Amino acid sequence: MMRKINVFGNPYVGVFCRASEKLACVPPLMDGEIKHAIAEVLDVDIVETMLGSSILVGSLVAMNSRGAVVAGTATDTEVRMLEKHMKVVRLKHRLNAAGNNVLINDRGALLNPGLDQRSADSIARELDIEVLRAPIATAMTVGSAGVVTNKGMLCHPRASPEERETFSKLFGVPVQIATANYGTALVGACMAANTKGCVVGSTSTPIELGRIEDGLFL
After folding, report:
1. What would the 3-class secondary structure string for 72-140 be?
2. CATH superfamily, domain at 2-215
3. Domain locations in the chain?
4. Three-class SS state of 177
5. What pLDDT does 150 receive?
6. Alpha-carbon distance 145 to 47, whole Å?
7. pLDDT in tens, 106-164
8. What pLDDT does 124 receive?
9. Confidence band, pLDDT 50/70/90 cuts, at residue 59
10. Strand 191-194 and strand 197-201: pairing?
11. How far apart are alpha carbons 89 and 165 in whole angstroms?
């Protein structure tokens, strides 16, 4: 299932929302109809939270079925709330916007190459997954430049065939290039997705929607 939406009037859905197979984290005060659409399309429970007192939740958390990686700026109260639902790994590094810097599914995690080995080891150990530090094309913010589920991955259109092969091995899924929101290459900033559905920015074109649907096997 797929649906075009805006969050707070903004088509960059992935900046505000991040999803796993069971949960979607969204900021408080989100329009009720939008929350309902996210819950319905992704078939998830909604967790309302801020992270580091920011509404840019999608930029600050990365999730898979095993747990979440959150920004180091997240407060103890915010972390405890998330821990009611999942294991939480706090990213203790200057590049701590986890949603922007970590791309993750149940098999692997791709990290901004600027993150240190300690951060990579922590994510690998706590979530029991393989970890790779590498950019997508020229983009270091891999969580913004890609979208991955347990079925498929979409990435920046300038990613090379060699890169796409590497990502496919890491995540265990086919990889396709794509854009969203009328030509935006940073597809991760434009949507939230899992194996059941995708909510994507309202300015995405029919051709883009078709590629997203095919690439994520929806």
Report:
1. CCCCHHHHHHHHCCCEEEEECCCCCCHHHHEEECCCEEEECCCCCHHHHHHHHHHHCCEEEECCECCEC
2. L-arginine/glycine Amidinotransferase; Chain A (3.75.10.10)
3. 2-215
4. strand
5. 98
6. 24
7. 999 999 999 999 999 999 999 999 999 999 999 999 999 999 999 999 999 999 999 99
8. 96
9. very high
10. antiparallel
11. 28
